[in-house]
Amino acid sequence: MEFFQNLAADFVNQFEMTFITEQRYMLFLNGLKTTLLITLAAAMLGIVLGFCIAYVRTTHDRTGKLGFLNLLCKLYLTVIRGTPTMIQLLIMYFIIFGSVKIDKVPVAILAFGINSGAYVAEIFRSGIMSISPGQMEAARSLGLNYTQATWKVILPQAVKNVLPALGNEMIVLLKETSISGYIALQDLTKAGDIVRSRTYSPFFPYISVALIYLVIVMLMERLLNIMEGRLAQSDR
Amino acid sequence: MKMISRRSVLIAAGLSVAALALSACSSSSTAASSSAASSTAADSAAASEAGSTQSIVALEDLKGKTVGVQLGTTGDIYMSDEIGGSLDIAAVEQYNKAADAVQALLSNKIDAVCIDDQVAKKFIEANPDTLTILDTAYAVEDYAICVSKDRTDLTSSLNEAIAELKADGTLDAILDKYINKTEGAAGYVTPEGTEYPNGTLVMATNAAFEPYEYIENGEVIGIDAEFGKAICDKLGYELQIEDMEFDSIIPAVQSGKADFGMAGMTVTEERLQNIDFTDSYCTGVQSIIVLK
Questions:
Q1: Taking CB atoms and an 8 Å cut-off, how many pairs form between chains A and B?
Q2: B29 to chain A: closest CA residue
Q3: B9: chain A residues, CB-CB within 8 Å
Q4: This prediction's pTM
Q5: CA distances to A52, A74, A130 from A67, in Å
Q6: CATH number of the domain encompassing residue B83
Q7: Any CB–CB contact under 8 A between A184 and chain B?
Q8: Architecture field, domain A2-234
Q9: Are B274 and B190 members of one domain?
């Protein structure tokens, strides 16, 4: 009996040390805010960038135009996918923005957004290429020009196809932001690290951080399910 | 065939553009980072932009400034308490490595770095034209070895070894080698025929803290590494060094992943609640690095 009482007391004590002492819950809350902000902004940047690249690449593949832009896009994909995200983040912070005093959040958004853009580009490209050439030919023979046919016929179908893969990439992006701590940015993971460095007890900080990530990912999955269901209404 | 050759030309072109971009990038970066090593016209211009006269000359000047520290160090603990404290600093940025904090200072992202004096001196040696240490020491502290609270027997045998090595001059010899830089100081060398009947002791450290522990030629060396070796030789254990993040050392020792932690670690009240310390073997001073 005493054993369990001790265990409960220890549990309460640890909980208090992790969250209540010195208002440490604020560290977690602010960290969560930073993580969400970076993820959202980087996701938007990544999607815009990825979409533009996919558009250039597929246009080149299908029509043979935009040769130079296509080359640039390929270079971007090779460099960004060929180097670790963490190195890109460190290069962005210590080299590209090396001599200016700059808020770290935009640096992280830029680094993660540019990184994610490369992956999103290939996701979009696979979606666009998955639509059979017959669709384009049919649209063109109905009098739509290439741009119209792409926007009105190809893309709506492509977006539906890539949604699961895109959701995947967003989840990866959310979790990848956990390396922001390397540039002393206080995201959710760093908050756990800081609290652990004060309490010397890893259990509560890490388990809580893990649970918060899990809950966010579950919410994202739920959102994706709703979107997929909505888009599937036209399937029959 | 034609397709392939055309593609390989494309790839080659792409790669050369990449190489160009990279070299442009790296040359600008070396320009930025070598501003420390050489004082060219451009550097002094950059320095005057940031205020050519040293803007922080005393501890009081830290008011409203941002100070970089290494996560979990006493510098971190002290400085975090100074937010709205007597120094009234604005913010603390916790980097994983002291070198990252100094790099951030060099690139104007923070105003000062709080770190142990011997380590600070190494950074000044590397950047003599841009960095300087404030004359006033911030805090004086004792370094000791941390051991799990469950292993009081190990703590007491470590204490005995420390006392003996202090008395026979081994510790002084190591300090002469690394801190006083005495000519021909050999430090500690394992005597021939040393046997390890008691097995292995794992030492947790953070080898990015010259001169206490750092990596040279792939090996962890420094005061702590050499003194740790001397202690283990004395006790008949073989020493195995595990390099990890500084803030991971105490949890590693607590959970038995390492037998003891030795990393220029200061005895503090908060740490003592979680872990035991041996007798102190060194004193350190927390000092503040600022831009010249």
A1: 75
A2: A95
A3: none
A4: 0.74
A5: 15, 11, 22
A6: 3.40.190.10
A7: yes
A8: Orthogonal Bundle (1.10)
A9: yes
